[in-house]
Design a protein that fits this description.
heterotrimer, A mainly alpha (480), B mainly alpha (498), C mainly alpha (103), B: 498 residues, mainly alpha, C: 103 residues, Helix Hairpins
Chain lengths: 480, 498, 103
């Protein structure tokens, strides 16, 4: 009996945060402690699962022994494993950050919701069928909306309301697609669908509905209109969660469907997605540059970075998919650090007006360093995870001969540089109106820096991470 | 312990680790910080000296770490790398001493010296890079680490200068990245190889290679301040004097020039470059830069801006020497990498001394300053004569080989460029010298400070005096073993097919 | 036989479109929430009607299970939406989303 190899870690990953949520709700005075314990145990479970998968290969697990079609199957390959890992890493960091960020009154609402969100995310990444993906998508959406509303201000409530409507709308489009696919093939299992799906009008209708629904939730330009308000009016740790993980989860579903379920992808559709991605990069970048508030700037930066993820669709090569998946991981880490840094600055000065940053470089050096390091990764400068992703993406672009995407990629990098350094420049200069500062808890500053350093470290972990991605060959078989 | 693996890494890490510790050091721990700075600089020199000796005796030093599938982070000590490493390590020590004196009472020293150390790390990394991706990595790191030094003073002008600097360098870096990735997709390797690795490629790729060459050289040309990509350099002079001295006169522009050398010799190969027909246009661009920047320098009253335009002009000598296809010109170009560095840093140190001690920032305020600060102005005079190319100073050696090389390669027109530039150099340096030594002192200096027994504090005085002496020695002892000139001959012999 | 089923499915699609239309044109939040619910009912109708995949044999139970799950999700979503709507109204005085650019 080997503890690591014989435990059902996949179940632990769903049950732990779920129990954590209930416990935080019941014993709300100990919510912080309970939440932190849960966070660490989820991280440990993910590590154990990784060891298990490295030893035994991809995993398929029938919950309660029922199996398809009535039961629920869970599946772990390189793609889902990496999503689980990045969620756990970001999750622990955000938990530590939140433990100092929220006042007790807010904390008792925050922790159960956040644990619930985590459970939804984990089960989403583990789901092996398209209906279960719908359910987890909805659970995730509901938890996320409640978290956005947490601050209780009028703008936050309005943003949450809009977010909820968009989220429900997207899910219903998706579910309609599920209905059509089930009608055509009598199964919702991704692996079974992958073997059967052929090009037909019903399938194309389903693809259209599902892609539309997911694009709404991913906030791909021009469906991004709800994101900046929602992401920027939420409390900082929630903004980080939304930008780093929640939009990525919807993208993960799209990626899964595109790679496995949808028949030989339609060229026109893939070009359309690429084009929308390119527009998102340019539009999001320009919008970010013109923002006067730091959190809005970062939110538009997310709109932009989402665009990058869609550049892989027209390329349709393994290296392209790996590039954007690497980008997704790097962005998750870097954006977490960036929103945390913005949270520190907001906490410190009571505002996030960029032009009035007022020598934050001197007063919050750790935070600003973290912001800078995260910015390096977003710009795709070496050494960072963003650089590795950009390099691979550029390679895929040049190999495909579709050189015009390279112009977008480079322009996007420069735009990112422009808005990141705009912030840093103002952080060095003195503001005209001084603000009364408030001490930022050391814990918040250091965890921000740790995450930012991790964003840089991703630049040195490419061989290992790319090897993990190959587990179960989610992007197709490599030639070598 | 495997020295062949560890030594290049240690040379990079010696300043990196020092920088990281300095970052977290509290502001008031002045002694610890000075100890760390000087200690790390000395350690680096010792390590470089060991490596220099090792390379000379034929040892191979190489660090390889996995970076991407099929691509590694490679630090390799070849002869060309050693030239640049030795230059940066040596000048880092002197500049550190100078900077400690210069920033004695100013705030944010931990931040300053931290980034300063990062810059040197990046420069040494650029020098030791064994393939194009490693080069790119450190090249961009250099951009990032210099930015906070430019905006260090936190003024509006500094922020604007920093913005200009970034617009130029980030755009340049992007071009370099595209060129590098494109090259990689064609060849599957980016390893620097003497005489290049592209000549075996099918001739159908030659148009693509020409575009790649333009991308790479444009990307590098930004830092090497090739006309019309030089606009950031004069603006960046808002930075504190040690930054201008080491970074803008030596590290950053040299990283660009060094990259051009690498691309032409060790990626394309000089003979293959010539056969592609890309060297002559580059030589013309370099010549235009030399003349244009010299003319601009004539009209600058701000001393540091005049020196900055002079840098633009002088660094292009390196590019020119490389782009003239022929061994003697190559020697002239590469050796100027060292010679220009030593002379220009002298001039910037002196300019810093004038500003710090007497508050002099303009050429028009320098009348009679030679009698007030004789040592500083003596060093300045040597640097200036070196720039003009007067024998027996270091600058003369460079120009001599450049001229000979041009004749050898049949590019006679280059002689006129050299002659014209020499005249212009004289035209913008000699009036300064004349006014400083023979001009009437106006009596009071704009912002005089009493700094002790000597004309200025010793930490500010000793570095320029040493570099001035070096500039003389490099000329006088040019043919002694281990001199830059002899070392450059060794490099050059590897790059041309016998 | 197949036509009746097709009719049900078509009705489902009709409800879905009607709900979408209402969601877009109505400003009042309660109407928007109702619109979303109508869209949901449309999807459920499609799911259930298409469950009769093979003629003569008892209908496939799986879509029914899905619809039940879907209804549970929809109820909780509606509850959250209503609560939020009330909070929005108590904060801003009206149960509508203003078209203001985020500042």
């Amino acid at each position: 009996m080997n503890l690591i190899f014989d435990t059902h870690w996949v179940m632990m990953l769903i049950l732990l945060p779920l129990f954590g949520a209930v416990a935080c709700f019941l014993w709300s005075r100990q919510a912080v402690t309970l939440g932190l314990i849960t966070a660490v145990s989820v991280l440990l479970s993910v590590i154990a699962l990784t060891l298990q998968v490295l030893e035994q290969g991809t995993l398929r697990y029938a919950v309660g022994g029922w199996g398809a079609p009535l039961g629920i199957d869970l599946y772990v390959d390189g793609l889902s494993l990496l999503m689980l890992i990045v969620t756990a890493v970001v999750g622990v960091a955000i938990s530590v950050y939140s433990s100092a960020y929220f006042k007790p009154g807010k904390a008792k609402h925050y922790w159960p919701l956040w644990m619930f969100l985590w459970a939804a995310l984990n089960s989403l990444f583990l789901s092996a069928d398209i209906f279960n993906l719908y359910v987890t998508l909805e659970l995730m959406g509901l938890a996320a909306v409640a978290l956005v509303a947490l601050s209780g201000s009028a703008s936050a409530l309005a943003a949450a309301m809009r977010y909820l409507l968009i989220s429900l709308l997207g899910s219903l489009f998706y579910l309609m697609g599920v209905a059509l696919l089930y009608h055509a093939y009598g199964t919702v299992d991704i692996a079974l669908l992958a073997q059967q799906v052929e090009s037909s009008p019903a399938v194309w209708a389903a693809i259209g509905l599902m892609v539309t629904g997911l694009l709404l939730k991913i906030a791909l330009f021009p469906l991004h209109f709800w994101l900046p308000a929602a992401h920027s009016s939420a409390p900082a740790p929630v903004s980080a969660l939304l930008s780093a993980l929640v939009v990525k989860a919807s993208f993960y579903i799209l990626l899964r469907l595109w790679l496995d379920v949808f028949p030989e992808a339609n060229l026109a559709l893939s070009y359309l997605l690429g084009l929308l991605g390119a527009s998102a990069i340019i539009w999001g970048g320009i919008q970010a540059l013109y923002q006067t508030r730091l959190k809005l700037l970062i939110a538009y930066s997310t709109v932009m970075q989402i665009g990058y993820l869609f550049l892989a669709f027209p390329l349709a090569s393994i290296i392209g998919w790996k590039a954007v998946f690497y980008l997704l991981l790097s962005h998750a880490i870097a954006k977490t650090a960036m929103f945390m840094a913005a949270g520190n600055i907001l906490f410190y000065g009571g505002h996030d007006q960029i032009a009035d940053l007022d020598r934050v470089a001197q007063r919050l050096p750790i935070t600003l360093t973290a912001f800078g390091l995260a910015g390096i990764s977003l710009m795709g400068l070496p050494p960072s995870g963003g650089f590795i992703a950009k390099w691979l993406l550029l390679e895929a672009i040049i190999l495909s001969g579709q050189w015009w995407w390279a112009i977008i990629l480079i322009a996007g990098g420069l735009l990112t540089g422009a808005y990141v350094f705009k912030v840093i420049g103002f952080a060095f200069t003195q503001a005209e109106v001084p603000h009364e500062p408030r001490m930022v808890p050391k814990r918040m500053e250091w965890v921000t820096l740790t995450v930012a350093v991790l964003a840089i470290m991703l630049g040195f972990m490419a061989p290992q991470l790319l090897a993990l991605m190959d587990l179960g060959a989610p992007f197709g078989e490599t030639m070598s | 312990m495997n020295w062949a693996f560890w030594l290049p890494l240690l040379i990079v890490l010696s300043s990196l680790l020092a920088a990281l510790v300095i970052f977290i050091l509290p502001e008031e721990k002045t002694k610890t910080r000075i100890g760390l700075n000087i200690g790390a600089a000395l350690l680096k020199i010792v390590l470089v000296a060991i490596m220099l000796w090792g390379v000379h005796s034929g040892y191979q030093f190489e660090t390889r770490l996995p970076l991407l599938p099929g691509l590694e982070l490679v630090l390799r000590a070849d002869t060309l790398a050693m030239l640049f490493v030795a230059l940066s390590a040596g000048l880092w020590l002197l500049t550190t001493v100078y900077a400690i004196g210069y920033l004695e009472d100013s705030p944010h020293r931990s931040r300053f010296f931290g980034f300063f150390g990062l810059c040197v790390t990046a420069t040494v990394g650029v020098a030791l890079a064994g393939n194009l991706i490693t080069f790119l990595l450190f090249y961009e790191l250099l951009t990032l680490a210099t930015y906070p030094l430019i905006i260090h003073r936190g003024t509006e002008a500094a922020r604007k200068a920093g913005r200009t600097y970034l617009i130029y360098t980030l755009a340049g870096g992007a071009l370099l990245l595209i060129g590098t990735v494109w090259l990689y997709t064609l060849t599957g390797t980016l390893e620097f190889t003497a005489r290049g690795f592209l000549s075996t490629l099918d001739s159908m790729h030659h148009p693509a290679l020409i575009i790649i060459f333009v991308l790479l050289i444009t990307g590098l040309g930004v830092k090497a301040a090739l006309f019309p990509l030089h606009g950031w350099l004069p603006q960046a002079m808002v930075a504190p004097a040690p930054v201008s001295a080491l970074l803008h006169a030596v590290a950053v522009v040299k990283a660009g020039a060094f990259g051009i050398i690498r691309v032409i010799y060790d990626v394309f190969g000089i003979e293959f470059s010539a056969s592609l027909g890309v060297t002559l246009p580059l030589a013309i661009v370099a010549s235009v830069t030399i003349i244009y920047a010299s003319v601009r320098a004539l009209f600058q009253d701000d001393l540091k801006r005049r020196l900055a335009f002079s840098t633009v002009s002088q660094v292009s000598y390196i590019t020119l020497g490389v782009a003239i296809v022929g061994p003697l010109a190559t020697i002239g170009g590469i050796v100027h990498l060292v010679h220009q560095g030593v002379m220009k840093i002298t001039l910037f140190f002196c300019a810093g001394n004038l500003a710090e001690t007497l508050g002099i920032h303009k050429v028009s305020e320098m009348s009679g300053v030679g009698r007030r600060m004789p040592w500083t102005m003596a060093a300045f005079t040597i640097g200036a004569f070196g720039m003009i190319g007067a024998p027996p100073l270091a600058g003369f050696i460079s120009k001599w080989y450049l001229g000979l090389g041009a004749l050898q390669a049949g590019q006679d027109w280059v002689i006129f460029v050299l002659a014209g530039s020499t005249l212009l150099n004289a035209a913008y340096f000699l009036p300064i010298l004349y006014a400083a030594w023979f001009g009437k002192s106006t009596g009071s200096w704009p912002n005089e400070r009493n700094i002790g027994r000597y004309e200025t504090s010793l930490a500010l005085l000793i570095p320029p005096v040493i570099t001035a002496i070096l500039a003389v020695l490099l000329g006088l002892l040019a043919s002694v073993p281990f001199s830059p000139l002899e070392w450059t001959r060794l490099i050059t012999s590897l790059e041309y097919t016998p | 036989m197949i036509n009746t089923i097709f009719l049900y499915a078509l009705a489902g699609v009709g409800l879905f479109s009607l709900g979408l239309y209402a969601l877009i044109v109505h400003a009042h939040l309660l109407r928007k929430i109702l619109a979303i619910n109508i869209m949901g009912s449309g999807v459920f109708l499609v799911l259930v009607s298409l469950a009769d995949r093979t003629q003569g044999i008892a209908p496939d139970p799986v879509p029914h299970a899905m619809v039940i799950t879907g209804i549970v999700v929809a109820v909780s979503a509606t509850a959250l939406a209503l609560t939020l709507m009330l909070r929005v109204r108590s904060e801003t005085g009206q149960a509508e989303l203003l078209e203001e650019p985020p500042k």
